[in-house]
Specification:
single chain; 177 residues; mainly alpha; 8 helices; globular
């Protein structure tokens, strides 16, 4: 067993024990605090569930209707100007919306082109450098009741676009085509 495997096997139990010991040392009512937090968590889930159901339904309709493929075919020429492979465009479009859909798309790309191909490397780099913006906004802003997100969405989408372009450029610089 390697050192990292041993460390990872014990990381969670050690973290739980450390939290319990810290709580006992500070004389915190651990179980009551846990149940209060769980109660708040359930309240938060109930408050944001309609938004999440709406997002997941919209994703399903978008993919099943063929709209994703239509948008990809329209944007592929523009993406190629920035060095983004057309094969990764579904990933670029879905990443701000859904992490699970993006993981499925990335798995398809990697199975089709291979993990060491240019397209596979760009897809993998994009997964690590972009965020599920709409999900994150729904969860975080929904949990605290924020209604006016101001410039958050625009700034996040710009950052996501920059990350997609940067992923392609870095893969060219590091690995070549």
């Amino acid at each position: 067993m390697s050192v990292l495997t041993a460390i990872s096997a014990y990381m969670l139990p050690v973290a739980v024990m450390a939290i319990l010991c810290a709580g006992l040392a500070k004389k915190v009512k651990i179980f009551e605090t846990f149940t209060e937090g769980a109660s708040e968590g359930i309240t938060t889930v109930i408050r944001i569930l309609p938004t999440l159901v709406g997002i997941m339904t919209a994703i399903g309709v978008f993919r099943a209707s063929g709209a994703l493929e239509a948008v990809v075919s329209l944007l592929a020429p523009v993406a190629s100007l920035f060095g983004i492979p057309a094969e990764t465009m579904p990933l670029v479009l879905m990443r701000p919306v859904s992490g699970s859909a993006t993981m499925a798309i990335a798995a398809e790309i990697i199975n089709m082109y291979g993990p060491d191909s240019y397209v596979g490397r760009v897809a993998s780099t994009m997964l690590g450098s972009t965020e599920t913006i709409f999900y994150t906004l729904a969860v975080y802003y929904g949990s605290v009741g924020v209604r006016n997100i101001r410039y958050t969405l625009v700034a996040a989408l710009i950052a996501d676009g920059v990350s997609a372009v940067s992923s392609a450029l870095l893969c060219v610089l590091i690995f070549g085509r």
